[in-house]
Each structure stands twice: as C-alpha cells, then as structure tokens.
Amino acid sequence: MSHFIIDKLHTKLPLHFGGHVEAGYKRVREAFEQNFRDGWEPEGASLAVFVKGRKVVDLWGGYADKQAARIWKEDTITVAFSTTKAVAAACIAMLADQGRLKYDDLVSKYWPGFAKNGKANVTIEWVMSHMAGLPYLDTTLTKEMITDHNLMRKALENEAPKRPPGRHTGYHTFTYGWLVDQIVRHTDEKHRGIGQFFREEVAKPNGIDFHIGLDHSEEYRVARVVLQTVAGGFAEVLHDFKLGLALLKFFLSSEESPLKKSLRNSPWIDVLDKCTVNDPEQHALEQAAAIGIGNARSLASIFNLLVNGHIVSEKTMALLQKPVINTTDYVLNEQTVKGHGFFYYPPIRDNEEHLLMGHSGLGCQQVMFDMKNKIVFAYVTNGMKAREYVFCRNYMRLQNALYSALEV
Q1: Spatial CA neighbour of 75 closest among 238, 208, 261
Q2: CA distance 288 to 179
Q3: Is residue 31 part of a domain?
Q4: Residues 6+ apart with CB under 8 A from 390
Q5: Number of C-beta neighbours around residue 310 at 10 A
Q6: Which of 208, 222, 254, 302 would bridge 203 by S-S if both were Cys, CB 3.0 to 4.6 A apart?
Q7: Is residue 280 assigned to a domain?
Q8: Which DSSP string corresponds to 137-172?
Q9: For 278-330, what is each residue's pLDDT tens digit?
Q10: What is the DSSP letter of 47?
Q11: Gap between the Cα atoms of 3 and 378, Å rounded
C-alpha cells in the first residue's frame, strides 16, 4: 500500500542504474535495485563495498536531481552529512599517529584560549567522544561566523559547557566539526584547516573524490538533496513502528531540548524546516561534522585505507578499535557506544564478538567497517529518510544482502 501511495505522488521517470559488482555479489546489486523498484529510494544513491582491500561493489542509480531529470552518474557527489565526522576522526588519528597530539592531551595544551569558562580539563578524546559538554552554543551562529574560522574559534572559546565535561556524552551535531577543525589548526605543523589537511594528506595522494570544502568548479556534479515527503515518512513508519515511536518522541520534545537546540543552532544551516544544504556556499565550508561532499566510492575508499593500515599504524588502529564510552547520550536520548570520533555497533553475525565501527549520517547515509573481516561498506543518498542505520530499511536491506553473499 505504501509503495502504491508513493508511486502515485511522484512523477514517473525511468529507473536508471550503473556500476559493477564482482562475481558472488549479485544479490547486493539486486537489493540495491530493489530499493528503487519498491519506491523506498525515490531519488538517487550510491553504494560501495571493499573486502580485504579489494573493491567488490560499486553501484549507483536514480537521479541526482529528479526535477531536472538529471541522472545519478559515476562521478555524482552528494552531501554525506554526519558520515563526515568519521572522515574528520581519521584525520585526527593521522595526527596522533604522527605524534602531533595524543587523545589524552588537554585541548588547551595546543589551543590555550579554549581553557576559558570551565573547559580547562577537556581532552581531545572528550571532544572526539562528544563528552566536551558543547552540543550547541548559546550564541546564535550566523553565516558570518560560520564562514570565518577565527570567529568560530572565539565563539568556542567563550562558550561554557552545558554539562560537566568528561562525565556524560551528548552528540555534538555541528559543534564537533568546528572543534575538530580548531584542533587540526592548532596541532598540524602547517596549521591547515581540516578541509585542507584532508585534501592534501588523504584525498589528493590517493585520488579520492571526497571534499570538506568543495571548490565551486565542482558544483555541477553535486546531487540535489530532497527532504522526505509526508508519504515517504508514513511508509517508513508502516514498515517499522519503532521508528514511528522514535519520531513521535522527537516531535513532541521541547524546543529547549539539547537535540533541537543543536539542530537549530544556526538559522543558516537548516535541514528540518527547509533544505539549505543545497547552497553552494555551504558546500564550500570546512564543516567536518555535517557537510562533507562525496559518494559511496570515495567514502569507502577512505576507510579502506584506514582499515588496511595505509594512513595510520597498527598501533593507532588498535587504539581506535577500543570504545571510550557506552551509555545513554543525553542529546540523542538513546544508548550509544562511542570513541575517537566513531560509533561502535554490534556484530552482524551471532557467532562473532567484535564490534563494527563507523558513522551514520542524516537521511540514511552510512559508512561501516568490519575490522575482523576487513570489510568497508558505504552508502549515500540524496533522498532523505526518516532515520539512519537499523532504522533505515534501505540500508539494512543492503547490509543483509552483503553478509548473506559473504556466507555463500
């Protein structure tokens, strides 16, 4: 019924698919295409999988801009939302590996101005694990501030924690990006921002098409992000009533709740009431919490390098695999396991104990890596869904298909 409703509310355009899968992964391609055929994926998407360092799945389909009938191509890129946080975490891991910082170091060791207003004891790890007590700023973040890293530095320095640092974890929706940017600027020997550091140390040397600060000349490749329709959200809730309860809890929460205050911290960046992230000026930001631009191939390629020891040592990788905090997140209001800028997830198979690592992004973006089996899995879409990871049926169908293929 939900498929019928969505089908009637959308202009019919021919389905479009591209890419390849290696032998043995046919069911992953079938699952990817079925998301479109069932109406679960009304816009466009891309999917990539590496297994033991080899790319075995690289797929794309749908439309980069449905209103313009612009198809999703091999080089189409899109806003990756909070999966960008994992990319930023990889940059911090590289700096740690180079001896430029330690996770247990105080932020103020490198950035003295940050110590003001009760933040003197905040460590780099607390920032990475969302334990700094700064899920939002009391100051309304203007466009002028957001586009000037010196103004953001001063705003962060002047802010006081909302909760005692180090005792609780509360998701730093946007502030994570500005905090990590300043940590990079204060520890990198060249004092580069996070976008430049990533571009020069990871993207360019490895031919990776992911950007934290997109050059305007690349805008023609960016997919148009589309907010979810009421019908689309209703269809997801019919599929999973737990999702409905989670959404109801969010909509009934106070405007003064930490989550809503973090999401509305800047009127210029808005994905709740309108979709401002299609603005090229926002794409140009070095905003490492939410506005990285890439596709599944580029996102998976980054973590294929990480997982296989090409950008950090085995010692650093072993550290990254150890969670830091496992408790209820006071912003997200759900149990989370975090550390070093990553989220940790239960194993897929019942007979395995190792945790998966990665990060979700708004609208059903996901990057996941399975260290034991050396699997990296990335999925991005420009059609927003109600939730992420286990709450996103599109992603779970693909993940289940992958692990089913691996068991054959």
Answers
A1: 208
A2: 9
A3: yes
A4: 396
A5: 12
A6: 208
A7: no
A8: -SS---HHHHT-HHHHHHHHHHPPPSS-TTT-----
A9: 999 999 999 999 999 999 999 999 999 999 999 999 999 999 999 999 999 99
A10: E
A11: 25
pLDDT in tens, 216-245: 999 999 999 999 787 777 777 777 767 777
**For the domain that residue 296 is a member of, what is the CATH number?**
3.40.710.10
Q: Give the single-character DSSP code of 223.
A: P
φ, ψ for residue 380 (rounded to 5)? -135, 150
* Tally of domains within the chain: 1
In-domain check, residue 300: yes
Q: Containing domain of residue 81, as a range? A: 2-85+222-250+292-407
**What six digits make up the tokens of 236?**
């997801």
As given in the structure block, the two tokens for residue 282 are 């926002």
Q: Which token pair is 266?
A: 């800047």
Answer positive or negative: Cα dihedral of 278, 282, 285, 291: negative
8 Å CB contact between 158 and 116: yes
The tokens for 350 are 């019942």
pTM above 0.85, yes or no: yes
Residue 197's identity, in one-letter code, is F
**At 3, which amino acid appears?**
H
Q: What are phi and psi of 345, to 5 degrees?
A: -125, 155
- Which of 213-222, 299-308, 378-387, 388-397 comes out lowest in average pLDDT? 388-397
